[in-house]
Amino acid sequence: MATAEPGLQAGDGLPTITRDVLQNTAAKIGIRVSEHLEEEFIETLAAARDAMEKVLQMDDFYPIPDTNRYPRIDIQAVSPDENPMNAWATKVTVKDIQPDEASLKILAGKRIVIKDNVCLAGVPCYLGTDVFSDWLPKTDATVVTRILEAGGTLIGKATCESFSAFGISNTSFLGPIGNPYDKTRSAGGSSSGCGVLIALGEADLAIGGDQGGSIRLPAAHCGIVGLKPTFGLVPYTGIVSNEISHDHTGPMSVDVLSNALLLRAIAGVDGIDDRQIAGTPFPAQVPDYPTLLTAARTARSLLSIGIPSNATGREPGSTRKMRVGILKEGLEIEHMDPHVRDTVETAARKFKELGAEVVEVSVPGHIQASLIGRVQRVSQSNNLLGRANGTRQLYLTEFIEKVLPWTQEKFDKLFCNSANILISGLYADEHYPQLYGKTQNLFRKLRQEYDAVLADVDVLVMPTTPWVAKVMQPRNASIRDHYKDYNGLAESIQWN
Ligand SMILES: NC(=O)c1ccccc1
């Protein structure tokens, strides 16, 4: 038998810190601990390990859902014949069991679905993947709590694309999600199930998630209204992150007014998510968005008299016409479908007819934004690798425990979008460690450019996507073909 390595022995089955463990750890950054220091570093590393093991044994701390008042009734996997579009991940009913009170509230009577990356305690969260299939979250997302407290009825979870990481709806393990207007085409993603269930009238409202278009794309492709709220306006607490600086959650609906209603119910700081930086109102101070909209009464008065001053920060009583800025660069995307351009130009003319002032505006940086964003999105790998990120928020440690450790079997089950993010992330760590920070700096510059234009116009108009919904590739299509559709460019792999 080989002589045991010197080092602290595992007292209570703790992993032993040996010379090899020490040196293999140091080797991750290409260094070696000098031999004469080995003994002492083994002791300090063992002390760190002891602390980690003790914290590992502690109970985690999540907000505790009120499952007595809001029980999870009739949780069911949906049979294929009830799920022709694959848009349902799980059906369940959750509502306030004190209906007298609920009937007075703003979401009373609304049937609401949530994207399947939003935690609903006790109900499976699949996240569009079968890398794991046994995650029953212990907590409710803040948006869930707020919907229930506002009298809404949750009716289930809507399928999302694999790890919320694709804009075409053929990446979920549950199967392709057909567009309501043409089953062979994409419904858009990654909040694909939400878009379809709203368009089909199976739900009144949905909670989607958006990092790089995941609310806006399915809304555009399904012909519904999807809002990606200002960063931080709605707490992301209890929702699986893709990239901490990209995470948004927001309402999807058939019309603008009901979208505003759901936004009102879910917006405002929750005291948990520190990305709700200064400026986000407390829930009681959230503007009454539906009333602001109805106060304007008609589109004509909204556009020609202007939106109510308390919504714009403009001086009270201001009657300036609404100024609509058509973003020049938004219509200069390479290979843009001419139908999309026509639709935007028709809308611009309509705004004019209705009394708004319509002007062309330019943000030169817009063209490069997608390239910078593509590099920044590589950091989604941090989430898949369970890495620390330094923000104060609710960490879904349960999710990290499901995903890690990566194994060949799990990797082989990944749809190519997530596999690509993982590999690109590991490569970036090694070869471009400064670039994530640089992308954040460049995005700050870009925000200044958009803000400068928004000082002059009330809204910027551009297409949500340069292409109409694509006919979906079969799941087993080549990676190259999946990405070709994603980018709309036959010859290049451009995004994600
Ligand atoms: N999560 C997202 O917003 C997303 C959208 C499109 C592609 C990748 C990610």
Automatic annotation (TrEMBL):
What region holds the Amidase domain? 101-471
Q: Which organism is it from?
A: Ceriporiopsis subvermispora (strain B) (White-rot fungus)
Q: Which family does it belong to?
A: Belongs to the amidase family.
Molecular function terms in GO for this entry?
Answer: catalytic activity
Concerning Pfam families, the annotation shows:
Amidase
Q: What is the lineage of its organism?
A: Eukaryota, Fungi, Dikarya, Basidiomycota, Agaricomycotina
The name this protein carries in UniProt is: Amidase domain-containing protein
